[in-house]
């Protein structure tokens, strides 16, 4: 009997990741998601992840030598830090095009992360640039 992964696991253009390790430098990409969306053709190594209008990060798409494991790496720690992700939070990755993902994050109680609030905090923490002009 042929197992249709798309029906059984409802695979489409999204996958989720539950944050377990704050020092992890990669996110595993489900094999069913990979084959459904990329059809065994490796995507561009450079992937852009975007959290609403808040921010974009460049991460790297990688795979194991035997081609059986896929992951996002090389920049994931910046996403963890900038979005202030914590253990047991869930991040949903939505494939927008071959090399771009939109991400949405949820607290462990199900509340969505407010990216606008994060942007305000980031703006407040950024020192103002002062230009001194000699006269």
Summarize this structure briefly.
This protein is α+β, with helices and mostly antiparallel strands and 135 residues long.
Describe the 3D structure.
The protein has 135 residues and is of the alpha+beta class. The chain has a single domain (5-125), classed as At1g16640 B3 domain. It is built from 4 helices and 7 strands; from the N terminus they run H-E-E-H-E-E-E-H-E-E-H. It has helices at residues 5-9, 31-38, 76-82, 115-125; strands at residues 14-18, 26-29, 46-51, 55-63, 70-73, 90-97, 100-106. The longest helix has 11 residues, at 115-125. The protein is globular. Mean pLDDT is 77; it is low at 1-9 and 126-135. GO terms for molecular function: DNA binding. InterPro entries: B3_DNA-bd, DNA-bd_pseudobarrel_sf. Its main location: nucleus.
Number of domains: 1
Secondary structure tally: strands: 7
Percent helix:
10-25%
The proportion of residues in beta strands is 25-35%
Distance between the termini: 83 Å
Residue stretches low in confidence (pLDDT < 50, at least 5 long) are 1-9, 126-135
Going by helix content, strand content and strand pairing, the class is alpha+beta
CATH topology: At1g16640 B3 domain
Mean pLDDT: 77
Per CATH, the class reads Mainly Beta
Under the CATH scheme, which architecture would be assigned? Beta Barrel
Q: Main sheet, how many strands, which sense, barrel?
A: 7 strands, mixed
CATH H-level superfamily: DNA-binding pseudobarrel domain
GO molecular function: DNA binding
Keywords: DNA-binding, Nucleus, Transcription, Transcription regulation
Domain TF-B3: 21-96
InterPro entries: B3_DNA-bd, DNA-bd_pseudobarrel_sf
């Amino acid at each position: 009997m042929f197992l249709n992964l798309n029906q059984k696991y409802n695979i489409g253009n999204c996958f989720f990741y539950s944050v377990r390790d704050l020092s992890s430098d990669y996110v595993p990409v489900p094999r069913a998601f990979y084959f459904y969306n990329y059809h065994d053709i490796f995507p561009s190594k450079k992937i852009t992840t975007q959290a609403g209008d808040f921010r974009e990060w460049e991460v790297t798409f990688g795979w194991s030598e035997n081609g059986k494991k896929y992951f996002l790496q090389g920049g994931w720690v910046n996403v963890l830090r900038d979005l202030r992700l914590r253990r047991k939070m869930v991040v949903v990755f939505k494939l927008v095009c071959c090399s771009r993902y939109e991400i949405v994050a949820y607290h462990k109680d199900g509340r969505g992360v407010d990216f606008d609030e994060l942007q305000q905090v980031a703006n407040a923490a950024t020192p103002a640039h002062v230009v001194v002009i000699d006269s």
